[in-house]
């Protein structure tokens, strides 16, 4: 029986891992489909990250563990096929109820050709905002073991939703981050924490590359770099901005009968050429 050669995937995973440098962060404009991924790569991104919210919306589903694994991973495979740079997949809570299910998701991520995952500790059902730390650590350990079994150094970015869910501050974040790193996480992602003092405390306290989610009102990338951040992403921000343009243009056309919102659009030929076509 022959086994698949994971050497190219391993090399890509190592290349992606090397992009996480505190003080010289990997900057990820998150994509949600083939077109957005190709545009992000064309803009000069060293890697492409998917946004689970953007992917879900594009497929007609709400974000928050509502999209099925098969649909989500098909979108990831499409993004991987569209670009040459490494891809990291936002897999929400792992599209599974137990650690073995998370391991299955990781195997599917690798089969799709992605070399990183974001996996969150938020709970979208029940009263508690976050999954118990020991339970989440088991899920991260399962993700790590599944990738290791295939010989691929998948970058596991453990998302800690303390700030995003209003569940705690720096101390609780550091406690959870330490458990997740001990379980095999390679990086820690703390969305909702952007003020410089908080970011500095997180950089100092997390024993792994720190990922910050930026957007309007957050310090610029250069300032985050100066604080020692290793990765900056924007979550669903670009998707939200794109969809805002769709709504604005549609309302203008239907209400005023004018077309000003369409000014500044990308040239047809330029977009078509991005996909290998002509006019």
From TrEMBL:
Record SUPFAM superfamilies: Phosphoenolpyruvate/pyruvate domain
GO BP of this protein: methylation
Molecular-function GO terms, alphabetical: methyltransferase activity
Transmembrane segments: none
Keyword entries, A-Z: Methyltransferase, Transferase
Full protein name: 3-methyl-2-oxobutanoate hydroxymethyltransferase
Native organism: Streptomyces longwoodensis
